[in-house]
Design a protein that fits this description.
about 200 residues; alpha+beta; Glutaredoxin; 4-stranded mixed beta sheet
Length: about 200
């Protein structure tokens, strides 16, 4: 059985999808959480000088959060059934990245007034735009509360993590399929167990 070591900062961020995948598959993994003071020394040992990094069996190291998530999804048969489903999964994953990209435009601003203004603009604009696109994708391909097909895929976990990362869960009241999907994912036994135990972090 492979061993997994996932290294990221002490937050949900870009690693949370992979943590959720490992939890959903019932796989034990070493959840290494790096603080920013440690990062300078560790950076040189990372394949691309970035995080997250997934290490498999102490040998293979994988960079890029999307590549890690797709690798795990393929390993655990959580990528959909056939090419059509997989293409829908990819569309949802890429649209989630677009959704979150808007947050990065203001998340690290120092001026709190400017940050608040930019966030309001995001909530009224890009957030609703991309949630609408995601709602349509789920309507097209989802069944029984899942985002694609009638069983769990990485698309469900991507939606869960990136909507949470974007801090827009409250907007889901206007997107009934996305709201139902989130509630479905939260109640899956292995996910529910993981969520109950994961560290509380700022981001």
């Amino acid at each position: 059985m492979p061993s997994y070591k996932l290294t990221y900062f002490n937050g949900k961020g870009r690693a949370e999808v992979s943590r959720l995948l490992l939890a959903a598959a019932g796989k034990a993994f070493e959840d290494v959480r790096v603080d920013f003071a440690q990062w300078g020394d560790l950076k040189k040992d990372m394949p691309q000088g970035t995080l997250p990094v997934l290490e498999v069996d102490g040998k293979m190291k994988i960079s890029q959060s999307g590549s890690i998530a797709r690798y795990l999804a393929r390993e655990f048969d959580l990528y959909g059934k056939g090419n059509t489903d997989m293409t829908l999964v990819d569309q949802i994953m890429d649209t989630c990245i677009d959704l979150f990209s808007g947050v990065l435009k203001f998340a690290f601003l120092k001026d709190e007034a400017e940050k608040a203004q930019k966030r309001e603009e995001y909530l009224a604009g890009d957030a609703k735009k991309y949630l609408g696109l995601l709602e349509k994708l789920v309507q097209e391909g989802g069944k029984s509360g899942f985002a694609v097909g009638s069983s769990l895929t990485v698309a469900d976990l991507m939606l869960y993590a990136f909507i949470e990362n974007s801090q827009i869960v409250e907007l889901l009241k206007d997107y009934k399929l996305l709201d139902a999907n989130r509630k479905k994912v939260e109640q899956l036994p292995k996910i529910k167990e993981y969520l109950a135990k994961r560290p509380v972090t700022e981001f």
